[in-house]
Design goal:
single chain; 321 residues; mainly alpha; MetI-like fold; 13 helices; globular; MetI-like_sf; transmembrane helix; cell membrane; transport; MetI-like
Length: 321
């Protein structure tokens, strides 16, 4: 297991270098640059803009710009945001806790709902309850997250006034107090439900189908023939095999904590990494855009590694060499 992990980590290095090259080229392929929006014939001196481009290195050859950016990245210098005029590392560090809080809350909601509905539907297939759960799953798969977010704001914020429609916390509260954390939960609960409830559909269907399939296998028939209680058959023998596909989702959900919330954070005006990423695209904030993209890529690779390792933990028959 240790050798496999080390080998996979070393294999990530050339992959990340390739990803950095693609990300850099795609960013440079975008029309204009971070100074294009500041050009105003009435208020801006074009010579000043050209001097700023020269100072920032925008006129240097592409290979020179790339290796300068990669060198700074390796040294821990992620550059300075051209939009917010602060170091990108500080900008990401300020927004990242909000996104992690949102992502973890949505994952808790997803797994609670998925396990509850998936186990029920798998143990009682083709019943009225299973059909209701299936209908809810198809509805969740059909509704885009941004549509659900807009309707949630309209009904629960504007009409009922139950939840705030923007922000992550009441700014008048003292950080660290009970009321502060209660306000954070109050602000995050609706975006988390939108993300978590819609993601539940695929999890529930995978778990349901695997429970039904595993319940028909020979080892279950043997356990029943030996007089093993039904609850033990489902909770020990079947569930241990059925949750393996969900382990794959759990690994990739590490990247989903950030990337999956881009639209939802923007609609709810939730100050997280997703909203920052979208703003960096519209404002051509290259340093912020490239660092967030690299972070998402690294999290995806790490999530894939974690998923492979968890395979061996959940099912000892799987050996990683």
């Amino acid at each position: 297991m240790l050798k496999y992990t080390i080998r996979r980590i070393l294999g990530m290095i050339p992959m990340l270098l390739l990803i950095s090259f693609v990300v850099f080229l795609l960013a440079k392929a975008m029309p204009g640059d971070s100074l294009s929006g500041e050009i105003d014939p009435n208020n801006t001196d074009p010579q000043y803009i050209e001097e700023m481009r020269e100072r920032l290195g925008y006129n240097d050859p592409i290979p020179v710009q790339y290796f300068r950016w990669v060198g700074g990245f390796i040294e821990g210098d992620f550059g300075k945001s051209t939009r917010y005029k602060v170091p990108v590392a500080d900008l990401v560090a300020e927004r990242l806790p909000n996104t992690i809080f949102l992502g973890v809350t949505s994952l808790v909601i997803t797994y609670i709902l998925a396990f509850a509905m998936g186990i029920y539907a798998g143990r009682k297939p083709y019943t009225f309850g299973d059909n209701i759960i299936g209908g809810l799953n198809y509805l969740g798969l059909a509704i885009p997250s941004f549509i659900a977010a807009v309707f949630a704001i309209y009904f629960f914020s504007f009409n009922l006034g139950w939840i705030p429609y923007s922000g992550s916390v009441d700014p008048t509260l003292q950080p660290g107090t009970f009321d502060y954390w209660l306000s954070r939960i109050h602000h995050v609960i609706m975006p988390a439900i939108v993300l978590g409830a819609l993601a539940t559909a695929s999890y529930t269907q995978f778990l349901r189908n695997d429970i039904i399939e595993n319940s028909r296998k020979d080892f279950v028939r043997t356990a029943r023939a030996k007089g093993t209680p039904t609850s033990k058959i489902y909770n020990v023998h079947i569930m241990r095999n059925s949750i393996i596909p969900l382990i794959t989702f759990l690994g990739f959900d590490i990247a989903t904590l950030i990337s999956g919330a881009i639209i939802t954070e923007t609609i709810f005006t939730y100050p997280g990494i997703g909203q920052l990423f979208l703003n960096s695209v519209t404002n051509r904030d290259y340093p912020t855009l490239m660092i967030i993209t690299m972070m998402l890529s690294a999290l995806t690779l790490i999530g894939n590694l974690i998923a492979d390792i968890l395979y061996g933990v959940v099912d000892p028959r799987i050996r990683l060499d």
